[in-house]
Amino acid sequence: MKSFFIFILLITGSMVAFSQSQSEMNKQAGTEYKEADKKLNEIYQLILKDYAANKTFISNLKEAQRLWIQLRDAQVKVMYPASAKSYGSVFPSCKANYLTELTHQRTDALRVWLNGLPQGDVCSGSVGVKE
Predict the structure, then answer these.
(1) Would 103 be classed as within a structural domain?
(2) pLDDT value at position 76?
(3) Is residue 106 part of a domain?
(4) Is 1 a member of any domain?
(5) Interior angle at CA 97, CA 73 and CA 14, nearest 5
(6) Structure confidence at residue 35 as a pLDDT band (50, 70, 90)
(7) Maximum pairwise Cα distance, the chain
(8) pTM for this one?
(9) What whole-number distance in Å separates Cα of residue 111 and Cα of residue 42?
(10) Is 15 contained in some domain?
(11) Is the pLDDT of residue 17 over 50?
């Protein structure tokens, strides 16, 4: 019986140690989004640098990125069309998580211009055309 009681105390203690308030979860989700956005901007800046000689590409990339930001923001509005208050205290976390997901998707899409495509891909377009 004594072992069982100690076991229960250990389990309860570990659950308390890992619990977070909603405020902490919102803050963590916001931090994760900021990190994802920072990575996206790093990739974007590397592409701008690597392809600087290809003025047409750079112009089109900047336009595409501007439009992607509009699409990202519109996607968030579609996902959460009501006022923030209607989703409760979890909303900042949910919104940040969704923004993080969209940002990771965009980062992966842009990374192609740095990593290239498999050799022999005849539909590579501007990938690798730095001049």
Answers:
(1) yes
(2) 98
(3) yes
(4) no
(5) 165
(6) very high
(7) 76
(8) 0.82
(9) 10
(10) no
(11) no
Supply φ then ψ for residue 82, to 5 degrees: -85, 175
CATH of the domain at 90: 1.20.1270.180
Q: What is the DSSP string of the chain?
A: -HHHHHHHHHHHHHHHHH---HHHHHHHHHHHHHHHHHHHHHHHHHHHHHTTT-HHHHHHHHHHHHHHHHHHHHHHHHHS-S-GGGGGGGHHHHHHHHHHHHHHHHHHHHHHHHH---TT-TT-TTTT---
Structural domain including 31 reads: 21-114
Above 50 in pLDDT, residue 39? yes
Q: Work out the pLDDT band at 48, boundaries 50, 70, 90.
A: very high
Tokens 């990202």 sit on residue: 72
Domain count, the chain: 1
Which one, of 34, 105, 114, lies nearest residue 68 by Cα? 105
The identity of residue 55, as a single letter, is: K
The C-alpha atoms of residue 16 and residue 9 are separated, in whole angstroms, by: 11
